[in-house]
Write a structure and sequence with these properties.
Distance between the termini: 21 Å
Strand content: under 5%
Radius of gyration: 21 Å
Structural class: mainly alpha
Number of helices: 10
């Protein structure tokens, strides 16, 4: 299921990761008055090639690393581990009904480490094909992978800036380029976290009203 949703995200993922690169590289060229049209074309080409490589490498980082990046947690990263807190705060769900119907999922005594597994088994799996659940899951995967890609780009840019490397047609990396990439990374992280939590709520709502 996740692999199918990731395949559907390929084009959107390329757009999300390519947009900041295109902006950065074109601005890199545009700040120098001596640049030519060829420099702009090369900058756009480099951005396109880099984007294609990043999309191909998007499956390389382990999921656990991506989840740690998105949720800023070393353990129990996935929102299913906190499904009780997330769902109890949603107005469409009744806390007493959740505790009564699925005490093994939402009960106070359930260990945090086991809660995600119980949520997946009793809540998510029966409704995983529901359109609302699939939509939020697909968007979570999209922004999670975009965040991981943006983080890799940020690391490469940091090395480029620190080393003082003068790239042909692009020159030295300006400090604002790193600021642009950080801004995109934060947006991707926030979006992934939002849709991850929304997936938990949507699955629970669908299961409750099934």
């Amino acid at each position: 299921m996740a692999s199918n949703l990731k395949d559907k995200n390929r084009l959107a993922l390329a757009g999300l990761m390519g947009a900041p690169l295109l902006i950065i590289f074109v601005l890199q060229v545009g700040l120098d008055e001596a640049r030519t049209a060829l420099d702009f074309l090369i900058a756009a080409g480099v951005a396109s090639v880099a984007t294609s490589v990043l999309v191909m490498l998007s499956d390389f980082p382990p999921q656990s690393i991506k989840h740690k990046l998105v949720f800023f947690r070393l353990w129990n990263e996935l929102p299913g581990h906190r499904c009780d807190k997330i769902c109890f705060s949603d107005s469409r769900l009744d806390k007493k009904e959740l505790l009564s119907d699925w005490p093994d999922v939402f009960g106070r005594d359930v260990a945090t480490g086991a809660r995600n597994m119980m949520w997946y088994k009793h809540i998510y799996k029966p409704v995983m094909n529901d359109p609302a659940v699939q939509s939020s899951h697909q968007k979570f995967l999209l922004y999670r992978d975009a965040a991981a890609g943006s983080f890799m780009v940020l690391m490469i840019m940091a090395v480029w800036a620190y080393s003082g490397f003068y790239a042909p047609h692009l020159g030295l990396l300006h400090s604002w380029a790193i600021a642009i990439e950080i801004a995109f990374l934060l947006i991707m992280v926030a979006s992934a976290k939002t849709h991850g939590n929304r997936m938990v709520v949507n699955a629970t709502v669908s299961r409750s009203y099934a």
